[in-house]
Specification:
With 256 residues, the chain is α/β, with parallel strands linked by helices. Helices cover 45% and strands 15% of the residues. The strands form 2 sheets. A 6-stranded mixed β-sheet has the order 1-2-3-4-6-8, with helices on both faces. Strands 5-7 form a two-stranded parallel sheet. β2, α1 and β3 form a beta-alpha-beta unit. α1 packs parallel to α3. The radius of gyration is 17 Å and the shape is globular. The structure holds coenzyme A.
């Protein structure tokens, strides 16, 4: 198993996956996306696993896509690692719960739209900084965020790209509840244990039925977003923003 994804079984039937690159605020590079997806696939076919909980190490959920991967504009012809991971999450057949502390940026926020349940500590900080980085929404958020948050709030969060706290995340439908600081994982594990004790067949059927109407629509939105995102990511504004981040300065203003 990858050193950046820790796999544990803290309660019967509950698989805990911890994103562990704390020195990068748990940024998701290609290897970490792959390892997280592989861990999901392993949980999907393991009859002993009823529920999966995903969290981050060191007091943060994830700072999103590793920006050094975004700087790489070489054409590999391969689908993006983030998109491949989200495809595996969207198709995951068992309940999956997020436990968020600290930062949840970019895909760290949009992936919450694909979890069944999510809990965040009171100190959590969310952000969808796509436009400030010269990018556009990804992860199905252009479709799903308006659906769960309402159009005005979704546009505010996606167009301005400003940081927001857990109360706004709850209002936007990204999380179920705000837990006391440092207790999001305890809240998620408590809910996971309750889910794991229920009928496996009924749970699987419920998840399948709740996804039936929207899964294809979500995959289509993700593919549309990916095409535009990919083009913007390679463009001069986004590349300047990535370089500015690593040089610790504000992104240059857009020339247009
Ligand atoms: N990709 C690559 N490295 C990242 C990263 C990312 N997404 N997020 C953080 N890091 C690195 C930083 O470069 C820093 O490395 P260094 O110690 O070698 O300088 C280290 O992780 C710690 O981050 P730092 O910025 O010092 O922490 P902070 O608490 O001041 O801020 C964030 C945390 C998440 C708010 C800030 O790091 C950030 O905005 N990161 C970028 C998030 C982003 O834009 N994600 C992609 C969205 S599409």
């Amino acid at each position: 198993m990858s050193p950046t994804i820790l796999v544990e079984t803290p309660r019967p039937g509950v698989r805990l996956l911890t994103i562990s690159r704390p020195e990068r605020k748990n940024a998701l590079d290609r290897a970490t996306y792959r390892a997280l997806g592989d861990a999901l696939d392993a949980a999907a076919i393991d009859d002993g696993v009823r529920v999966v909980v995903v969290t981050g190490a060191g007091g943060d959920f994830t700072s999103g896509n590793d920006l050094s991967d975004f700087r790489d504009i070489a054409e590999t012809g391969e689908p993006s690692a983030g998109l491949t991971f989200l495809g595996r999450l969207v198709g995951f057949p068992k309940p999956v719960i997020a436990a968020v502390e600290g930062v949840a940026v970019g895909i760290g926020t949009t992936m919450l739209l694909h979890f069944d349940l999510a809990y965040a500590g009171a100190g959590a900080k969310f952000r969808l900084p796509f436009v400030p980085l010269g990018l556009c929404p990804e992860g199905g958020s252009s479709l799903l965020l308006a659906r769960v948050a309402g159009s005005k709030l979704a546009r505010e969060l996606l167009m301005l790209g400003e940081p927001f706290g857990p109360e706004t995340a709850r209002e936007a439908g990204l999380i179920n509840a705000v837990a006391a600081p440092g207790t999001a994982l305890a809240a998620a594990l408590e809910r996971a244990e309750a889910l794991a004790g229920l009928s496996h067949a009924a749970m699987a059927a419920t998840k399948r039925l709740m996804g039936t109407a929207s899964t294809e629509e979500v995959r289509a939105a993700m593919a549309r977003e990916a095409e535009t995102f990919h083009a913007l990511r390679r463009g001069p504004e986004a590349q300047a923003a990535f370089t500015a981040f690593f040089q610790r300065r504000a992104a240059p203003p857009s020339p247009s």
